Amino acid sequence: MKKVFFTIILSCAFLISSAQFTAVSSVSSPNDGENWELSNFTQKMGIGYDLNDKTMIGVIKNNDDYNVFARQKMKFGFLCLESTAEDMTENMRAGWGMYINIYKGLSVNPMYLMPLKEDEDGGRDGSFSIGLSYSL
């Protein structure tokens, strides 16, 4: 039993030590008449975990709520699924984004997300956002 427990602890330690964590943030533009502040860059901040070279899962704090996301890296960008932590299937959004590397792990991420489910009016208005990410 001790060997099994030690093997589990050791494998978890290797998994965490070899992991690639990424800090992610979406830039929100200030309201009319307001200036750019640091909170525009940190209001929607989170962390992602690279499961392998192409797949990332993570959590983003969006004001008082939490959003979960998954990204699948492709040749020219990434596919993204994002949803709130509550009612995931009702609030699921899918989209496409790109990594534009700036400097040693720091990148800008333009992304367009569109809801999978229609709203009351039958529309699916998507949203464009620009984010920052830093691979730790």
Question: What are the salient characteristics of this protein?
Answer:
globular, eight-stranded antiparallel barrel, mainly beta, single chain, 136 residues
Fraction of residues in helix: 10-25%
* Main pleated sheet: 8 strands, antiparallel, barrel
Order of helices and strands: HEHEEEEEEEE
Judged by helices, strands and strand pairing, the structural class is mainly beta
Strand runs, count: 9
Describe the structure.
With 136 residues, the protein is mostly beta strands. It is built from two helices and nine strands. The protein has helices at 2-17, 39-42, and strands at 20-27, 44-50, 55-62, 65-74, 77-84, 93-97, 100-103, 106-115, 127-135. An eight-stranded antiparallel beta barrel has the order 1-2-3-4-5-6-8-9. Strand 2 and strand 3 form a beta hairpin. The protein is globular. The N and C termini lie far apart (35 Å). The mean pLDDT is 82.
Helix and strand topology:
Elements (H helix, E strand, L loop, with lengths): L1 H16 L2 E8 L11 H4 L1 E7 L4 E8 L2 E10 L2 E8 L8 E5 L2 E4 L2 E10 L11 E9 L1
Antiparallel strand pairs: 1-2, 1-9, 2-3, 3-4, 4-5, 5-6, 6-8, 7-8, 8-9
